[in-house]
Each structure stands twice: as structure tokens, then as C-alpha cells.
Amino acid sequence: MKDIHYMRRALSLAARGGLAVRPNPRVGAVLVKSDQVIASAYHSSYGAPHAEAKVLKKAGESARGATLYINLEPCSSYGKTPPCTEAIISSGVRRVVIGCRDRDPLNRDHAEKILKKSGISVETGVLEEESFELNRDFFIWTEKRRPYTTLKLALSLDGKIADRRGRSRWISSLPSRRYVHYLRSLSDAIMVGLNTVIADDPLLTVRMGYRNPGLKRVVLDSRGDAPPTARLFRGRGASNTILAMTSLAPPDKLKKITEGGAACLKVPARKGRVSLKVLFRRLAEQGVMRLLVEGGGETAAAVLEEGLVDEVHLFIAPIIIGGRKSPPAVGGLGVKSVKDAYCLSGMDVNRLGNDIHVFGYIKRG
User: Fold this and answer.
1) Per-residue pLDDT, 80
2) In angstroms, rounded to a whole number, what is the distance separating the alpha carbons of residues 189 and 291?
3) Residue 66 carries which DSSP code?
4) So what's the pLDDT on residue 235?
5) Which of 97, 154, 231, 361 lies at 20 to 30 Å from 109 by C-alpha?
6) How far apart are CA 281 and CA 194, in angstroms?
7) Residue in 96, 15, 114 with CA at minimum distance from that of residue 52
8) Smallest Cα–Cα separation from 193: which of 148, 236, 226?
9) Contact 314, 352 (CB under 8 A)
10) pLDDT at res. 251
11) Please, are residues 282 and 289 in contact by the beta-carbon 8 Å criterion?
């Protein structure tokens, strides 16, 4: 029970790191001796000392013989800072309690072996599920080499995302739209398809009390058909816009897009469209850890079919749109059988204004 108590404290500290630590994980550390907390710390920003190094420096000689609680396996490789395993060993800590193992191949399962070899007792898996949840995005980014991807859809009761003329403003309520801006504030990039740009001419900025000035905007446009006059490609935010296209896009069209400050990212084609797996890998290499996919129906279908979605947010409005020409929330061909449907785990349902908000993780396997 004591281990659980102190690990909860480490998790609480880790959460304070928030977005400032990305692309590093959120880590908290608590040093305990004779049932007394002698020091605590958390990783506060990218490039700053890790939680383990900070807490050991705070404690100094008092760390000798103490127990160190950390929610994530300590790093054992050189990065912007030396390996935390070295600091732990030299501190004289007697025991280390770890929440969950690191998924990064550079560090996974190495720390325990290194620490035990130095005579330090190690226990892993205390509040493992909570520790995993706190850094779920980091684990996907490091292990899969792609962004942690959230799919957001605002739809009617009958599963439509726009009327028969393609207009979607406003299906969802004001509280739902405010929540979407919160999701944008947590993301490194937003991705939409060409049809969304043509139909809505969106800004894809963060508003309604939230901020994220560095948010990237990614547009899927295999043939370079996006209108250069779209707001995404003009103005101060254009430099944060990336047009993901294939070699099918004519150079003269791309020149008009880039004149406004947007960047073009050439990606191999798959079935005549941008290869999403290659694009996601490229985005991850550019530091995009969290990606928010906002639309439309064909884009939603594509990321689901490629197995690239991690969590889903559905904002279901109490309206019925109807009609064969009204676009569905998820397009494509659909699954071959009901047993192949995409299932949610950890689902949560609540009200946002008049809407129903459904959240869940895509179940794997």
C-alpha cells in the first residue's frame, strides 16, 4: 500500500509537466526514506533535467539508502542529458519502484538490468495502467514511429457530418466546439482532407480561451487541387500549413500554394492517394507527437482503414439530416462484416450542451 501511495504522488507530479515536456514523457519522482518524503520533483520542460536527476540533486547525501518512486522506467541512454541510471547508481539509492516500462527501444527493459547489476532492488508495475495512460501518446510516438492520433467527428443522430450541399456549420453545440478547441490545444498538428478545405475554408486555429500558436495544419491533397486562395495558405498562419501531396500534383499549382508561406510535403502515392503511413512517419520525424484528424468522412475512413487511429471523440447532435447526398461521418467502402467493425475500449459518454460526447480508444486485436 505504501508503494501505491507514493507512486500516486509521483504520477500527480508527472502530470504537471503537461505539454511543456513534449516530445519527452511526463515523469515524476519521489524519494522516500524511513516513511518520509525527503524530496520530490518532475520533468518540467523539454531539455530541462529529468525528474530523477532533479530529485536526487535536491536530496544530496540524504538519497543514500532511500527508495525512489518514478512512474516511468528511467532512461539508460545518452540524449540531451546523461542517462538517469548513472545518477541513480551514484546517489546510493537502495530501492527503485517503477510505474511502467519505457516503450522506446533505446531504453526499454535496460534500466532494471543496469540497476540490479549495481545491487539496487527494483520493482516494476506499480500502478502500471495509470502510468501507461499518462504517457500513452509518447509510447505510440516512440514505439510506432508515428503520431498519437485522435479522430474527431461532429455528426447528426443519423451519422451525417454535413447537409446535401456539404455545409457543416454548425452541427455541434457551442460547448462541443469549445471542447474541440481544447483538443486542438493539446495537439501538435491538425489534419483535414481536401474536401473540407473546399467546403468550409477553415482556419484550423485554436480559439475559445485556448492557445497553441505552434499548431501545424496538414491538408491531404494528392493532386494539388487545393485553392491557393484558401485561408490556410494565406496570412500569418500560412507558415504552419503543410500540403501533403504526391508526384501527381503539378508544380505550377504547388508554386501558387507556397507563395503564401505554406510548405509542400511530397509523399509516395498509395492507390492514387497520399500514403498515410509514410506521411505519419514523416510528421513524427518533424516532432508531431499528437495529431488531431478533423475531417471529413473520407479522411476518417482512410485513417481508420490504415489502423492509424488511437482515440475517438464523437460529438453527436440531436438532429436528423437524412438524404443519400449528405456525407456520412465515415466514408469509404466500410468493413466487410460487423465482426470487423472498429471497437472502442475505455469508453466514456457525457453531455456537452445538447450534444452527446462519446470518447474511447480504438481497441487493437
Assistant:
1) 67
2) 5
3) -
4) 80
5) 361
6) 20
7) 96
8) 226
9) no
10) 82
11) no
Alpha carbon distance 43, 176 (integer Å): 32
Say how many CA atoms lie within 13 Å of 227 toward its Cβ: 11
Which cell numbers in the block locate residue 204? 484550423
Give me the pLDDT at residue 120, please. 96
The span from the first CA to the last CA of the chain, in angstroms, equals 33
Question: What pLDDT sits at residue 82?
Answer: 78
Helices (H) and strands (E) in the chain, counts: 11, 16
Grid coordinates in use for 212?
Answer: 497553441
> What is the Cα–Cα distance from 190 to 236, expressed in whole angstroms?
17
Between the CA of residue 345 and those of 255, 301, 327, 355, what are the distances in Å? 44, 19, 26, 21
Residues of the chain falling short of pLDDT 50: none
CA distances from residue 181 to 68, 134, 206, 229, 232 in whole angstroms, order as listed: 38, 21, 5, 24, 17
Amino acid sitting at position 221? D
What's the pTM value of the predicted model, to 2 decimals? 0.89
Out of 52, 294, 298, 311, which one is annotated catalytic?
52
Q: Is 194 helix (H, G, I), strand (E, B) or coil?
A: helix
Encoded amino acid at 354, one letter = N
CB 196 within 8 A of CB 295: yes
**CB under 8 A, 24+ apart: contacts of 79-82:** 80/47, 81/49, 81/50, 81/53
The C-alpha cell at 282 is 514523416
- C-alpha cell of residue 17: 509537466
Tell me, what's the pLDDT at 193? 92
From CA 146, how far away is CA 176, in angstroms rounded? 27
User: Is residue 52 annotated as a catalytic residue, yes or no?
Assistant: yes
Strand order in the sheet with 121-124: 36-42, 28-33, 67-72, 95-100, 121-124
Residue 320 — left, alpha, or beta (φ > 0 → left; ψ -120 to 50 → alpha)?
beta
CA angle 310, 103, 188 (to 5 degrees): 45
Residue located via cell numbers 500560412? 238
Q: Residue 176 has which C-alpha cell?
A: 462541443
Question: Per the structure block, which three cell numbers stand in for 171?
Answer: 452541427
Q: Which of 363, 362, 348, 364 is nearest to 179 (CA)?
A: 348
